[in-house]
Design a protein that fits this description.
The complex is a heterodimer of chains A (about 180) and B (about 140).
Chain A lengths: L15 H15 E2 L4 E6 L20 E6 L5 E3 L2 E3 L4 H11 L6 E6 L5 H27 L8 H10 L4 E5 L10
Parallel strand pairs in A: 3-6, 6-7
Antiparallel strand pairs in A: 3-4, 4-5
Chain B lengths: L19 H15 L1 E2 L12 E2 L3 E2 L6 E6 L5 E3 L2 E3 L4 H10 L10 E6 L5 H14 L3 E5 L1 E2 L4
Parallel strand pairs in B: 2-9, 4-7, 7-8
Antiparallel strand pairs in B: 4-5, 5-6
Helix pairs in contact in B: 2-3
Classes of the chains: A alpha/beta (about 180), B alpha/beta (about 140).
Chain lengths: ~180, ~140
């Protein structure tokens, strides 16, 4: 008996390009390119009813009071300031205060535009980020981005973010829907 | 002269397409990496606000989408709701999540830039009462500067 070696037929692969194309088109259709960018914010836990509202007296130098009025003006000491001034204002305020105790109070009118609010928040975040970055350079000789998580935490505790948001009181009661 | 005469008629060789699927697959993987699946469709019209200091949303799960369009309709994940119904819907959403993960939930606020802050504050108030404390304001990078 002589066993001839059997030939295995090759798989026809001309259509595999088409299959890959189909997959490609499917992913192009179902996925989206919109970058999910934005600003993270952490809110305080809700107040429990029996917990007393504690009023803390904040010294003048530890309080930066900003307000956004109904006409989208940003007010600092009742004077309108521009959005691009906030970053410097915030930085000089934070460095001039007892840093762990400082508070930035932001009072927002219900009729102000969301865009105005977000630009203010963005600039304040920028102020914090710049300060943290400077601290990272002086303490660790690196930019904040490249620090280890422990180093980041130490700088975050040195420069904590204290932004208190309040809503301007409205004339008629029960404005909340 | 006859030395150079060709023995067979000249023909253009066919292009070898064996590596074509590999090229397409490379493209496919590229798109799979740089894009992400659209999980929650935005069913209203809205223009996101712009901002300078932006962070990418890194979490893929435990997200609660709150989408408010130009016409002040509120879309919570995939359905439209009324503002006063928000606490109920948030509570059911929280109940669907395993208990130890409830603290990790993140609200993604995609709100039109021209909406009044009163609406935003109401949404934030409801989220806070529901115990969803981390929020991510969706915004686009501003062009200027």
């Amino acid at each position: 008996m002589n066993f001839r070696k059997r030939k295995i037929p090759e798989i026809n692969s001309t259509s595999s390009a088409d299959i890959a194309f189909l997959l490609l088109v499917f992913f192009l259709v179902t996925s989206s390119f919109d970058a999910k960018t934005g600003i993270y914010r952490k809110m305080m836990p809700p107040e429990t009813e029996n917990a007393q509202k504690q009023k803390t007296d904040i010294q003048q130098k530890n309080l930066l009071a900003l307000a956004i009025d109904a006409d989208n003006h940003i007010l600092y000491n009742d004077e309108a300031i521009a959005v691009n001034q906030i970053r410097e204002l915030g930085k000089t305020f934070i460095t001039g205060s007892d840093i762990p105790k400082h508070t930035i109070a932001l009072e927002v009118n219900r009729d102000a535009r969301y865009q105005t609010y977000l630009s203010v928040i963005s600039e304040l975040t920028a102020a914090y980020n710049e300060l943290r970055n400077e601290a990272a350079y002086t303490d660790f000789n690196h930019s904040f981005l490249y620090l280890t998580p422990e180093q980041k935490d130490s700088i975050r505790t040195a420069y904590p973010m204290h932004i208190a948001e309040t809503e301007s009181p409205v004339e008629q009661e029960g404005g909340r829907s | 002269m006859s030395r150079f005469r060709l023995s067979a008629p000249r023909r253009v060789p066919g292009i070898n397409t064996a590596s074509l699927p590999d090229m397409i697959f490379t493209l496919l993987f590229f798109f799979m990496i740089v894009t992400h699946m659209r999980t929650v469709p935005v069913m209203t019209q809205l223009h996101l606000p712009t901002a300078q200091e932006l962070q990418k949303l890194e979490e893929q799960s435990l997200l609660v989408y709150v989408i408010a369009g130009k016409d002040t309709t509120i879309q919570l994940n995939t359905r439209f709701i009324r503002p006063e119904e928000m606490p109920v819907h948030l509570a059911t959403l929280k109940n669907n999540v395993v208990e130890e993960n409830r603290g990790k939930m993140i609200a993604v606020l995609r709100i039109d830039k021209d909406l009044p802050m009163g609406l935003v504050n109401d949404i934030k108030h409801h989220l806070r009462q529901a115990g969803i404390l981390t929020i991510h304001y969706s915004a686009e990078k501003s062009r200027s500067k």
